[in-house]
Amino acid sequence: MVPPAPTSEVTTALHGPVLVVSIHNPPVNALSAAVRRGLADAMAQADATPEVQGVLIVSEGRTFIAGADIREFGKPPVPPALPDVCQRIESCTKPVVACLQGAALGGGLEVALASHHRLAFAAAKLGLPEVELGLMPGAGGTQRAPRLMGAKAAAELMLSGKPISAQAGVQAGLIDRLEEDTRLSPLAAGLAYTQALLAQGAPVRRVRDRAVAEPAAALVALQALADDTAKKSRGLFSPLKIIEAVRAAVELPFDEGMALERRLFLACIDSPQRAGLIHAFFAEREVAKVPEARGAAPRPVASLAVIGGGTMGAGIAAAALDAGLPVVMVERDDEAIARGVANVAKVYDGLVAKGRLTEGQKAATLARFTPTTRYADVVTVDLVIEAVFEDLEVKKAVFRQLDAVCKPGAVLATNTSYLDIDAIAAATRRPQDVIGLHFFSPANIMKLLEIVVPAQVSPDVVATAFELAKRMKKVPVRAGVCDGFIGNRILAVYKQAADYLMEDGASPYEIDAAVRSFGYPMGPFQVTDLAGGDIGWATRKRRAATRDPWARYVEVADRICERGWFGQKTGRGFYRYPPGARSGQPDPEVLAIVDAERARKGVRPRTFTAEEILRRYLAAMVNEGARVLADGIALRPLDIDVTFLHGYGFPRHRGGPMKYADTVGLPQILADIRRFAEDDPLFWQPAPLLEQLVAEGRNFDSLNQPAD
Ligand code: 3H9
């Protein structure tokens, strides 16, 4: 007689001689405490029940197991620990079979590796993605995977964090058999396999009893990987720990390797990088939950038009084409549309040149692309994205035209990065259909999409925008209407802080180096050179008339642009670029310009340490972030975090600027701002929300409530 199921998340049932252990923990069968307990109890049951000759572990739903329950990390541990559960599975005295479908990730794959035989559906994905969360496999993955697939391949799987196909798993030795029949359920396929194994007298087969193949060569390969990782991982904590643990699999007995894995795993758990990366993981999923779209069904989008064929328009067109949509591109005349066509072709030629696309795939994609100079060609289109010159009057004129020709119910979006979308919407007779879709350049590559919600937009238009983002594989962040929305509004302020630092004594090269040392791929002056100094210059000239004449204004960038030095594309900017080079060298002439500007303004330069530079740069970012929150431009601090992770190169392991502020502590950020204000009280005014949170002893995370 089989005892009742130990937990509702894990049920057991006897099918002939096979004890079927079934996991049911939606949405992804994460290994919560109840699942771990259920699995351990099921193994005890298998051992204690004489009728049981074999065990089958299966899961219900789309995924086998997506790994440990990430929400538990950072909280007090609840036994049994996953490594112990995996040991319990492996030590079962009856053959244990795991049947993998969907995703078998992290602890999910580790459960499978602790089982004695592994069957996987052909569409299954296997991976050890812990590194993406600042972790390493911590339930035997670092010890068992190398014993099955070799140390180098196992370390590479863990360092990349990327999943492999079930077929690749078979080739690597992780999977024993592939199930090709998609009509079968995991239970049916798993039972058939288990029964066949029992019929053949298949033994209990424990990975722990195997040795890693070719140990000497493995150690050499691991050393090479360690050297490479130390160079490339830019201060990340867990990658080198992964290699250390895999080396133990080669050199130490299994139990000693497991003990080392545990120690290293716990060190990763304690690292602030883990906290930052897991914050990023959940924040990226939370951003799509916004009140404006609640309960609304997205409008169907079967076709899309882009107005404007510049770099941005072409990138957006490519993003839509890549999402499988037919795309119409409208330009004002033959010459402009020819340029638009060339811009789109350039995107796909680049992909072909890099071997990411075949000529055939390019042709098939471009067959869905229709260039035109006639607005009449957008009459049947479901969604239009305007990406013309950044000027309110020009954009209003485009929207008036769209209003005249588009079918009722078409969504009319603008890709403006700064302008007042309420004013653009008011140029039409259908403001409820108008929304902002702010893409980042290159639009077919950059993940961030700010979805800007004007006052009158209807909920189903907001829902449509989020749905489109999903189809385009973008990370959507809801933003309110203001100058610069979330990202560019905050950028403007910390860029100003960088300019002040430069004028007050730090060189642009010191500032860039300090910012890189924080984990950014580039500093702000390198970014200016990459984007092209002329772009910001044009904006500054446009705004000159409305600028407060008393506000501090740093002219260094203008002086550089006046010389025609627009950055990488002209070979000079803040840096000098030798022909063909993408990274620049410091330029003494730029330093002379900076000196001259300081002298002209009577500034006596002081020195700044890298730490001081960073404190100012980040405090400016966080302070403006607090204002953006208070104004309702960002719904929650996590929306700001995701914006900066995906659009502005903020180092992911720090979780985003608001998460970083919580890590440092808001009292320290506020104290810094007050100290900086002693020299420049106009710029360094503490945001009232920051002061309020400090007074109440709260952090930004306390504002990250779900948006209902
Ligand atoms: C680990 O295993 C450590 C061990 O080695 C050692 C331990 C000792 N836990 O992504 P989706 C939620 S570390 C908790 O939108 P999809 C997610 O937040 C773990 N929750 O679906 C979302 O919630 P909501 C290693 C999780 O179909 C919902 O599930 N494993 C977990 O696009 C749906 O998720 C990983 O890193 C989790 N593990 O993609 C895998 N996973 O609905 C992480 C998801 O409230 N997961 N949720 O917003 C994934 O990569 C994707 O979720 C997956 C499905 C591919 C599985």
UniProtKB/TrEMBL annotation:
Query: Protein biosynthesis as a keyword?
Result: no
Q: Which residues form the 3-hydroxyacyl-CoA dehydrogenase NAD binding domain?
A: 304-479
Which Gene3D superfamilies does this one have? 1.10.1040.50, 2-enoyl-CoA Hydratase, Chain A, domain 1, NAD(P)-binding Rossmann-like Domain
Q: Which GO terms describe its molecular function?
A: (3S)-3-hydroxyacyl-CoA dehydrogenase (NAD+) activity; enoyl-CoA hydratase activity; isomerase activity; NAD+ binding
Compartment list: Peroxisome
Specify the domain of life of the species encoding this protein. Answer: Bacteria
- Give the keywords, sorted: Fatty acid metabolism, Isomerase, Lipid degradation, Lipid metabolism, Lyase, Multifunctional enzyme, NAD, Oxidoreductase, Peroxisome
- Reactions mediated catalytically: a (3S)-3-hydroxyacyl-CoA + NAD(+) = a 3-oxoacyl-CoA + NADH + H(+)
Q: Where are the transmembrane segments?
A: none
Which pathway does it serve?
Lipid metabolism; fatty acid beta-oxidation
Give any single GO term for biological process: fatty acid beta-oxidation
Please list the residue ranges annotated as the 3-hydroxyacyl-CoA dehydrogenase C-terminal domain: 484-577, 613-698
- What is this protein's name? 3-hydroxybutyryl-CoA epimerase
Task: Give the organism, scientific name.
Answer: Sphaerotilus natans subsp. natans DSM 6575
